[in-house]
User: What shape does this take?
Amino acid sequence: RQNNCVVKKDGAAIVIRLLDTKFPDYRAVIPKEAAHKFTVDRTVLLQAMKKMLILSSERYRAVKITLADGILDLHSTNPDLGEAEEKIPVEYHDEPLELAFNARYFIDVLQNMDSAEVELGFVDNSKPCIIRGDSDQGFLGLIMPMRI
Assistant: This one.
């Protein structure tokens, strides 16, 4: 049948049922244009997110990101473990922006990129963050924000 994939080896068979429905259009969640953009050193951001992850737990996963006056401010709070904050200078002089993300998702994206610098783009605090790099042609990182 066309709905199954069969793998046979050494007298054993595995039958995998293939999906026959259409997937939603993933392009609908990717913002066409980011209203707020800045470039940051990928390694610096990656190390900062790893520091934020130390305080992370199942209950407290959010890293609050504040973007204002040329500073990317990362802040993580866990009542059981304490607080952490990292300030990274960036070229950003637009309106202040406050968002929250799961640090693990940022780390996953940044570790799979090769670019020395990455561009982060935001529409607002309810839309996904877009991450691109010059050396990562065809790669687009997309991270959904958390409510804070």
